[in-house]
Amino acid sequence: MKDAILAKLCAQCEDYYAEAMRLMSKDSVKQMWDREWVQQVSGKQAALHAQTHYYQALVCKQNKEVGQEIARLTCAMELFREAQ
Fold first, then answer.
1. How far is CA 50 from CA 9, 11, 27, 74, in A?
2. Res 72: pLDDT
3. Which residues, at least 6 apart from 47, have a Cβ–Cβ distance to it below 8 Å?
4. Which of 12, 19, 29, 62 has its CA 20 to 30 A from that of 55?
5. Can you tell me the distance from the alpha carbon of 13 to that of 44, in angstroms, rounded to the nearest whole number?
6. CA distance 7 to 71
7. Taking a C-beta distance cutoff of 8 angstroms, is the pair 42, 83 a contact?
8. For the BRO1 domain, which residue ranges apply (predicted)?
């Protein structure tokens, strides 16, 4: 698949995880989830955010946008560290 499509797919999946986090954090259902589940969803959301930046950096590389590529790769590395 093309890198731009992969970036869009990762961004959409990240949005789904963000929505899941929002719904899991509601007071009416918060007690139903173990703390590990919330951490798991949060980690996956951060990982997908990092993947979005990574694939977008590959798009920037193809377009010869070196500065933006470096910035996105730096951001992706920080987000991958957070996701661990």
1. 12, 9, 29, 10
2. 94
3. 79, 80, 83
4. 19
5. 9
6. 16
7. no
8. 1-84
pLDDT (tens, 9 = 90+) of the chain, 84 residues, equals 799 999 999 999 999 999 999 998 888 888 888 888 888 998 999 999 999 999 999 999 999 999 999 999 999 999 999 888
Domain extent at residue 43: 3-83
Q: How many residues does the chain have?
A: 84
DSSP 8-state secondary structure symbol assigned to residue 27? T
Token pair recorded at residue 21 = 């986090």
Residue 36's φ and ψ, nearest 5 degrees, are -65, -35
- What CA–CA distance (Å, rounded) separates 76 from 84? 13
How would you class 27 by CB atoms within 10 Å of its CB: exposed for 0-12, middle for 13-18, buried for 19 or more?
A: exposed
Number of structural domains in the chain? 1
